[in-house]
């Protein structure tokens, strides 16, 4: 008999008690953004430390200038890998409270349609329900085998919903303690109700503000229109030059470090049935605007972009003013993939714009953040093992996905701990996180626990 | 002996009295934009009617819903041309009053440098001093010859500084009475202190606001960047396409109706020594941005433009927001010359933009005014005669200039009275109209009177 079967059986037997425990955590009003709930946040951290100690973790509440962290350690067999599990115990505010069908901090079980039961309450999906799937998996392993299959460090944050101000300093100050072979981050969704997924890439970003300056004051377009440089025209031309007619970015060197996505990965994405219609239809669009010949999922997960996030210049009030503005500016961002270097991209963009500025005009740049992309190798053995474990549990092939935006903690783990992350979660798109009537599927909670038990098993085999 | 010599002599003899009369008019606080001065405006109209009656005009104050008009008629010899003279008796407010060296409504004579004397006061240049040059010319003609050399109608407006709300309806209602062979408009400047000028062209304008709409809401650029259409990108591209690299406007049909300026006119403009350096230097620019190979004067006076007067879209506040906006808009204007048709230009621009809108996006247009260019024929006999008269008076060849912007009354005369205008004035660029310490050169006032006396003579010979 395999060593995982009795763990899974134990999780099935424990389900009711695990729900009771989750309800205990969900009852704590750990709203991190509102100082009035600071004591509740600490209570959440203390609750988790107590639970983890019961399981056998060396757990402690760790103070920060903000809400505390929870750090817990558990040894594994000699030579086993070391994983860091990340989740957050803080939750979003509950306003508007009148739109909730139930008390957000009095969780309940509800059958929303035949065969579909959910756990209600603030934090049920984001992220208390999710992090408890891992805690319960550890508990069952310990109960059945007296140990965990690998060395586990747990980091629970209490400020994720309020910008994680303490995270970077905490990682920097405790790098040696927290560094593991890789991280498991449980704050994401499944592809859909049937299909588990692992997110292995997140796009990086470079933000840049560009201001084109022409005359030393606003000019009358009748008196100066023709001879005088118009900064809106110069800016529009520079921005327009950034994409060719097929949606490629034309900045020299922009694609350096961009890799082609392996064909088997692209093929698996094709199977996800995400099309221009399904992605863009709900927002009123239908025609992919990015590089031609690539699917919407590839465009979002594995291709870089140049986007114009804001533009302003001249007279923008009601009516009309025949002015030639002294300056115009735009906020431009680049989503990066693979090995694109934020510094190189920023410099290349600046050079590209500078080349298009007439000799009597000038341009100024102001940086707004830059971070490289996160990309776990598609052929990572950890990835393959975790996928197999998920596929076994859900009886459906797990998919490898990417993320179009960034999840800061993943970049922080990379930066401060030199550690890659596997993003695995069991949320669903309709969980209404951050909104009234947040819920978490009972199947997510139950099969999530079983998934982690299997993943811990698989990673160490 | 010529018939003009004694008229000029009489003007020289009358100078002191003419100054006294001007001071009387300058003392009236006819600020049209401030309702507190409504009675002063009427007083200005009444003062002018009285003066004109003294000369022998059939003059009257004509009520409007706003400040009154002054209309005056004087017959000329049978078969002589009929000219309409236009000026305005209202003035700008005087704020900031503390910056005036003298009381704006207590005019004075001041020698500002050896040999250079000016008349100070609000309205001295704009436009009371100017309109009185014509009145004094008529007076001297009448005194010397008992008649005017041609039929003259005078129209003095009292709302020019507050948008002329009553002008169009007044012209429409009194078209038969006001229609003349052509108009003389005295509200402009000389080319410089030595060089008299006649402005015979004014560019027209089409204003258009364009709004590109993409998704039905703002999108997160991480989640949608790549597949989703970005309205700023679409708008920037459409605007950038409007000019080619040589500054030509690429909208099909845009140059229909644009004529090449006669080479002798271009040559006369070359003699004016207005260069990129002199025009653009003071505003911090140096490189003409319009159509290559044309002088800055030709670009401003005789070539059409497409200008972007305002643009806005997405996030434009402090910092950065990774948003893909739902819409972006720009205010675009075209300066028109010669026979360009505003309706055709507007339609061509709209078609040009529409062609560049992806199938899943939309565009909306909002018109902001449209008027054709004003262009008196360069070989008009009236123009030649007036130029000769000015050249005789100033002992320097008068130049034919254009205006880059519009002067609404000229278009209104065209529209409502089917009448062309010659724009002749004796202001200087440093007259500080609309500003504290407005002044009018004594030489402008004196030689301006003599110039009109000569022009009236020349036009009828």
UniProtKB/TrEMBL annotation, chains A, B:
Residues 201-359 form the Peptidase M20 dimerisation domain. InterPro entries: Cyt/Met_Dipeptidase, Peptidase_M20, Peptidase_M20_dimer. Keywords: Hydrolase, Metal-binding, Protease. GO terms for biological process: proteolysis. SUPFAM superfamilies: Zn-dependent exopeptidases. It holds the Pfam family Peptidase_M20. GO terms for molecular function: metal ion binding; peptidase activity. This is Peptidase M20 dimerisation domain-containing protein.
């Amino acid at each position: 008999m395999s060593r995982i079967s009795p763990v899974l059986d134990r999780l099935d037997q424990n389900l009711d008690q695990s729900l009771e425990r989750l309800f205990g955590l969900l009852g704590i009003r750990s709203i991190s953004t509102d100082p009035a709930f600071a004591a509740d946040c600490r209570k959440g951290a203390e609750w988790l430390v107590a639970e983890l100690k019961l399981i056998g973790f060396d757990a402690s509440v760790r103070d920060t200038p903000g809400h505390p962290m929870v750090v817990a350690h558990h040894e594994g067999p000699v030579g086993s890998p070391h994983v860091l599990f990340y989740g957050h115990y803080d939750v979003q505010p509950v306003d508007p409270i009148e739109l909730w069908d139930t008390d957000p901090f009095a969780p309940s079980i509800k059958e929303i349609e035949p065969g579909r039961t959910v756990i209600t309450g603030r934090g049920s999906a984001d992220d208390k329900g999710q992090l408890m799937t891992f805690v319960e998996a550890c508990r069952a392993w310990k109960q059945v085998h007296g140990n965990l299959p690998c060395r586990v460090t747990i980091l629970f944050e209490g400020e994720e919903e309020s910008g994680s101000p303490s995270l970077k300093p905490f990682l920097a100050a405790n790098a040696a303690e927290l560094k593991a072979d890789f991280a498991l981050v449980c704050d994401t969704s499944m592809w859909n109700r049937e299909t588990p997924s692992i997110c292995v890439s997140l796009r990086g970003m470079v933000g840049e503000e560009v201001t084109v300056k022409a005359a030393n004051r606003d000019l009358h377009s009748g008196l100066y229109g023709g001879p005088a440089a118009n900064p809106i025209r110069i800016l529009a031309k520079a921005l327009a030059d950034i994409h060719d007619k097929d949606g490629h970015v034309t900045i020299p060197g922009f694609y350096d470090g961009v890799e082609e996505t392996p064909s088997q990965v692209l093929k698996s994405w094709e199977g996800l049935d995400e099309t221009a219609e399904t992605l863009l239809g709900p927002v009123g669009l239908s025609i992919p605007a990015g590089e031609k010949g690539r699917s919407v999922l590839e465009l979002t997960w594995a291709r870089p972009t140049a986007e114009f996030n804001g533009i302003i210049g001249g007279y923008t009030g009601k009516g009309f003013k025949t002015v030639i503005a002294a300056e115009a500016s735009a906020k431009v961002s680049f989503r990066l993939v693979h090995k694109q270097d934020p510094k190189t991209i920023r410099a290349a963009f600046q050079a590209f714009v500078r080349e298009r500025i007439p000799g009597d005009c000038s341009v100024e740049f102001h940086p707004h953040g830059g971070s490289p992309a996160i990309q776990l190798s598609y052929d990572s053995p950890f990835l393959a093992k975790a996928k197999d474990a998920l596929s076994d549990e859900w009886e459906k092939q797990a998919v490898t996905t990417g993320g179009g935006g960034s999840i800061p903690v993943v970049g922080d783990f990379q930066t401060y701990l030199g550690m890659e992350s596997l993003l695995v979660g069991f949320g669903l798109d309709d969980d209404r996180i951050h909104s009234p009537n947040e819920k978490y599927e009972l199947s997510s909670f139950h099969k999530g626990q079983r998934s982690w038990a299997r993943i811990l098993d698989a990673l160490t085999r």
